[in-house]
Design brief:
heterodimer; A: mainly alpha; 7 helices; B: mainly alpha; 2 domains; 8 helices; about 0% strand
């Protein structure tokens, strides 16, 4: 069994890499279906705990696959699932980056760069709203988010101070 | 723990110098060694609590280190989001490639992934202990709310430059409303708005 658990994990995770359009969140339901419902590798509660932890973790939420791999097949399981979620999509990005570097300065490229900038700015603002929607804690969370946006727009404070401040504010006012 | 990351970085850097002799087409425009790239992204990946990693990257790579222009960064971001994959990994790949070719891309992605994966497994161990205290949940909720502010601040900063002209301002507003408010699928929104925006930029450059 131990020989092919890795292959099974690769078979589950690697396709999800190419399906994860718009960020790792989009493949979580499918991951849940395969890991918990189909194969029963980990329990429902364990999956939820993994999700909570990987959301708190700095860095990509998709690293939830590392936790799952670790729980299913130990350290090598974690390595295998981490590589599986990142490699297939990374190859695509690298191919595009290569094409980009080769035609540096072409008129179409300058137009694409200028044209994409307002879209990307809109996407950052949209993701701010989406993230804020997902917060628990009601109005206090919204107030903290707004205050922190102001603080980071108007001052040169390190974000870590602002985030620490948010944690303290919530402890004091939300408890 | 730090020593382990450092060693990992040195090993990676060594490996990638070998690779770098093969790919010379991406001429580096700024001076940043592979080790610096790895460290920068390792720091981003392991300190950016709260899920606003993109905001942290923009603040650090464009603002503090000035490794690339804001426009270059935003292009990379749009690409990273449109392609499949995790955009917080796609973006370092793109930025790293821009700065130091294929080796740069690989060390940047490794920097975001591996230290963070290490922290994650440690957190998994610590979480069962900490989750017994209700304060843990409160502190994390507050930190998460504040962390989103960074994303907001970076969004405002990027927007400030784009709203000086009418068409980019309208495109920005439409993107925001479609994705953020109406919650339409991002890819569909990009598929409609990107050609219009790029066409406008192309037309404007010719005049």
């Amino acid at each position: 069994m131990r020989d092919n658990i890795y292959i099974t994990l690769i078979g589950i995770i690697a396709p999800l890499s190419l399906l994860s359009v718009g960020g790792g969140q989009s493949v979580l339901p499918e991951m849940h279906r395969q890991i918990v419902e189909l194969h029963g590798y980990i329990s429902e509660a364990q999956f939820l705990a993994d999700y909570t932890i990987s959301r708190m973790n700095p860095g990509p939420t998709s690293l939830i696959v590392a936790l799952i791999g670790w729980q299913v097949a130990g350290w090598w399981g974690a390595v295998v699932t981490t590589i599986s979620i990142f490699v297939p999509s990374s190859i695509l990005v690298l191919l595009l980056a290569r094409i980009w570097a080769r035609s540096r300065g072409a008129a179409w490229q300058i137009a694409v760069e200028r044209g994409l900038a307002p879209l990307a700015a809109g996407l950052i603002l949209a993701s701010t709203v989406t993230l804020a929607r997902g917060l628990s804690g009601g109005w206090l969370s919204v107030v903290i988010t707004l205050l922190s946006t102001l603080a980071m727009t108007l001052t040169r404070l390190s974000p870590l101070w602002v985030i620490g401040g948010g944690a303290v504010m919530f402890l004091v006012l939300g408890g | 723990m730090w020593a382990v990351w450092r060693m990992l970085g040195i090993i990676l850097a060594g490996r990638c110098w070998v690779l770098s002799s093969e790919s010379t087409e991406a001429a580096p425009r700024v001076q940043a060694s592979l080790w610096e790239l790895f460290l920068a992204f390792a720091k981003l990946g392991s300190t950016s609590f709260g899920g606003g990693l993109t905001g942290w990257m923009m603040r650090d790579i464009v603002g503090r280190r000035a490794w690339m222009s804001e426009e270059e960064f935003l292009t990379g971001l749009a690409m990273a989001q449109a392609l499949p994959g995790v955009n917080v990994v796609n973006l370092p790949l793109w930025i790293g490639y821009r700065i130091a070719g294929l080796p740069g891309a690989l060390v940047s992605a490794a920097g975001v992934i591996f230290p963070s994966a290490g922290i994650l497994t440690m957190m998994a161990v610590g979480y069962s202990f900490l989750s017994r205290y209700p304060q843990t949940k409160l502190a994390f909720a507050g930190a998460a709310a504040a962390a989103i502010g960074l994303s907001g601040a970076m969004g405002l900063r990027a927007a400030k430059r784009q709203v000086r002209k009418l068409v980019p301002a309208v495109i920005l507003a439409l993107t925001f409303v479609a994705v953020g408010v109406l919650r339409l699928p991002m890819l569909a929104v990009l598929a409609v708005l990107a050609p219009i925006s790029i066409g406008f930029a192309y037309d404007e450059a010719r005049h």
